Amino acid sequence: MKREKTKNLIDIKDLSKKDIDDLIKVANDIIQHKEKYSHKCDGKILATLFFEPSTRTRLSFESAMLRLGGKVLGFSESSSSSTAKGETLADTIQVVSGYSDIIAMRHPKEGAPVVAANHSMVPIINAGDGGHNHPTQTLTDLLTISREKKKLDNLTIGLCGDLKFGRTIHSLITAMSRYKNTKFILISPDELKIPDYIKTEVLEKNNVEYVETNNIEEYMSELDILYMTRVQKERFFNEADYVRLKDYYILDKHKLSTAKKDLCILHPLPRVNEIATEVDGDSRAKYFEQAYNGVYIRMALILSLLEVE
Ligand code: NCD
């Protein structure tokens, strides 16, 4: 079938800083004037193809399209799709791109969204590929940081937990490395340190300041943002390693005692044990606002990829 060149979002690097600024502006405008946008995608269909579990990402994409007046179809587990019969991703995408105007896809294999984009007639959005990237979570994070801090420059950002397999971490580092005077505090057990390619190809290449530690309290007083993550159980080969590492960090009120009054605590969710529920009532806990913001930045992204005015 004839394929026209379409825009995709595979990696956060596909967007310039200006593109990100524009998406944040539109998302803020949607939050202020929801009714203005409620028919922008009338007649359009979003397909959500989720080959891996999800709550927020899939439902926020679907909510985003429904709030724009569009419709949604898709599946939420590969076992209910023809993948279970042995169909290739390329064939699934070729077919579904004839049933929809835009596709959001989550897949356990790193790089699968590139294969999808090569076989799609419509824009492909990477909604998470293995332990690699998660660009729309990063857009959600950037919208939240810009709303909370009124800036994206000059921030000291603590990233804590599974920095090895956490795809939200990899995309967030890539995005924030482009802003002025970003400093990262990379907090993880030795086994879950940030991959070397992120250090050399992102941090060092862009001269971004960073330190690595396994102590969550060591730099607490310097942080503007603390981004907690869960240990990514599904990426472990060995259950015993997961069990040993899963409760390595539990953020509680005591650990926050030296933190700034305007610290912003984020987490892409789902949370397992890494933030005690006693922190939820702290005015610095912004992870549920972050999840809320996800719908609006995805609305802005859908409008942009579908080139709706
Ligand atoms: C994240 C993911 O899927 O990578 N969740 C999300 O999209 N909000 C984080 C996680 O699963 O730990």
Characteristics:
single chain; 309 residues; alpha/beta; Rossmann fold; five-stranded parallel beta sheet; four-stranded parallel beta sheet; 9 helices; 9 strands
Tell me about this structure.
The chain is of the alpha/beta class and 309 residues long. The chain is 33% helix and 15% strand. The strands form 2 sheets. Strands 7-6-5-8-9 form a 5-stranded parallel beta sheet. Helix 7 (196-204) links the parallel strand 6 and strand 7. Helix 1 crosses helix 5 (135-149) and helix 5 packs across helix 6 (167-176). N-carbamoyl-L-aspartate binds next to helix 2 and helix 6. N-carbamoyl-L-aspartate is lined by residues 56-57, 128, 134, 137, 167-168, 229-230, 268-270.
Q: Give a quick account of the main beta sheet: strands, pairing sense, barrel closure.
A: 5 strands, parallel
Count of runs of 4 or more consecutive helical residues: 9
Gross morphology: globular
CATH hierarchy class name of the largest domain: Alpha Beta
Helix content: 25-40%
CATH superfamily of the largest domain: Aspartate/ornithine carbamoyltransferase
Write the CATH fold name of the largest domain: Rossmann fold
User: Structurally, how many domains make up the residues?
Assistant: 2
Structural class: alpha/beta
For the termini, the CA-CA separation is 28 Å
C-alpha-based Rg, rounded: 19 Å
- What portion of residues belong to β-strands? 5-15%
Number of strands: 9
Mean pLDDT: 96
Element order, helices and strands?
HEHEHEHEHEHEHEEHEH
